[in-house]
Amino acid sequence: MKHKIDVVKTLLDALPFIKKFSNEKIVVKYGGAAQTSAELKEQFAQDIVLLHLVGMKPIIVHGGGKSITRLLADLGVDTTFVDGQRVTTKEVMRIVEMVLSGEINKEIVSLLDNHGAKAIGISGKDGGFLKGMPKDFENFGYTGLIEDIDPEIVDNIIDDDAVPVIAPIAGSNILGHPGFNINADLAASRIAVALEARKILFLTDTPGVLDKEMELITNLSIEQTEALKEDGTIQGGMVPKVDACIEALRGGVKKAHIIDGRVEHSLLLEILTSTGVGTCIEL
Ligand SMILES: Nc1ncnc2c1ncn2[C@@H]1O[C@H](COP(=O)(O)OP(=O)(O)O)[C@@H](O)[C@H]1O
Ligand SMILES: CC(=O)N[C@@H](CCC(=O)OP(=O)(O)O)C(=O)O
């Protein structure tokens, strides 16, 4: 049995990290690939509530690619990805919005609420937060890039001591436009830069960035990351993720981490211990 003094020591070990990150904004990209079991989802919610209660300002940007693909298959709608990004027809856009803004956003909000943190779920359409533009309409349809961010609505949520939970959909200034489907990794990095976050973490379904022998790479510079993209070691869904890390670092975020969302409490392990998990990318 664990002695009581060991519990106290564990808490004291976390103290320097709590001091370092207290009052700091931390963007957590919660990928669809990490939203697997009910147990992991509960642990994710506990981690966010704990970080919030010790004074950090977590901002959740969620994905849900796997759920979108599942519903599209159920409905018999074909879907394709190019370089890790979905091609979004008007029909697909409707489903993307239903799954991201409807199902997943509200599920995360409820989980946080049940564990004791006030959470407010929005998409980029709310309060004029994210305005999008087509990435390449001919080839990608309503897949978008973020053209403009007005951080006010999210800052207001944080000032109200609540946790913002953001679905990666951007609005448009054109009347009647369905909006844009934004890759959640790229949305997270733009949001981290606009909100001046200290740290960004991507929870996914691999231990981090893996090398050709499938071994975890614990630390990478931007140059090393670019080289791994060039030689094809980094592919598919990992491409927008490392691009997002690089964009965040160039925009002033101090550290970007890609960590395994399938590992129990990986968020707390990364933020509150000196061990660190996954891949850390720094300037
Ligand atoms: N070098 C690499 N290291 C780790 N994962 C990689 C690498 N290259 C490609 N991948 C793929 O990227 C996937 C993660 O991206 P994705 O499926 O989009 O996750 P998420 O839903 O979390 O955004 C991994 O499951 C893996 O298949
Ligand atoms: C343009 C684009 O690819 N959008 C993504 C949005 C969701 C997402 O990014 O989810 P994950 O983080 O779980 O992959 C999609 O349609 O799947």
From TrEMBL:
<comment type="similarity">
    <text>Belongs to the acetylglutamate kinase family. ArgB subfamily.</text>
</comment>
<protein>
    <recommendedName>
        <fullName>Acetylglutamate kinase</fullName>
        <ecNumber>2.7.2.8</ecNumber>
    </recommendedName>
</protein>
<keyword id="KW-0028">Amino-acid biosynthesis</keyword>
<feature type="domain" description="Aspartate/glutamate/uridylate kinase">
    <location>
        <begin position="25"/>
        <end position="260"/>
    </location>
</feature>
<feature type="binding site">
    <location>
        <begin position="64"/>
        <end position="65"/>
    </location>
    <ligand>
        <name>substrate</name>
    </ligand>
</feature>
<dbReference type="GO" id="GO:0005737">
    <property type="term" value="C:cytoplasm"/>
</dbReference>
<dbReference type="InterPro" id="IPR001048">
    <property type="entry name" value="Asp/Glu/Uridylate_kinase"/>
</dbReference>
<feature type="site" description="Transition state stabilizer">
    <location>
        <position position="29"/>
    </location>
</feature>
<keyword id="KW-0418">Kinase</keyword>
<feature type="binding site">
    <location>
        <position position="181"/>
    </location>
    <ligand>
        <name>substrate</name>
    </ligand>
</feature>
<keyword id="KW-0963">Cytoplasm</keyword>
<keyword id="KW-0067">ATP-binding</keyword>
<dbReference type="InterPro" id="IPR041727">
    <property type="entry name" value="NAGK-C"/>
</dbReference>
<dbReference type="GO" id="GO:0003991">
    <property type="term" value="F:acetylglutamate kinase activity"/>
</dbReference>
<feature type="site" description="Transition state stabilizer">
    <location>
        <position position="241"/>
    </location>
</feature>
<feature type="binding site">
    <location>
        <position position="86"/>
    </location>
    <ligand>
        <name>substrate</name>
    </ligand>
</feature>
<keyword id="KW-0055">Arginine biosynthesis</keyword>
<comment type="function">
    <text>Catalyzes the ATP-dependent phosphorylation of N-acetyl-L-glutamate.</text>
</comment>
<dbReference type="GO" id="GO:0005524">
    <property type="term" value="F:ATP binding"/>
</dbReference>
<keyword id="KW-0547">Nucleotide-binding</keyword>
<dbReference type="InterPro" id="IPR004662">
    <property type="entry name" value="AcgluKinase_fam"/>
</dbReference>
<dbReference type="InterPro" id="IPR036393">
    <property type="entry name" value="AceGlu_kinase-like_sf"/>
</dbReference>
<keyword id="KW-0808">Transferase</keyword>
<dbReference type="InterPro" id="IPR037528">
    <property type="entry name" value="ArgB"/>
</dbReference>
<dbReference type="Pfam" id="PF00696">
    <property type="entry name" value="AA_kinase"/>
</dbReference>
<dbReference type="GO" id="GO:0042450">
    <property type="term" value="P:L-arginine biosynthetic process via ornithine"/>
</dbReference>
<comment type="pathway">
    <text>Amino-acid biosynthesis; L-arginine biosynthesis; N(2)-acetyl-L-ornithine from L-glutamate: step 2/4.</text>
</comment>
<dbReference type="InterPro" id="IPR001057">
    <property type="entry name" value="Glu/AcGlu_kinase"/>
</dbReference>
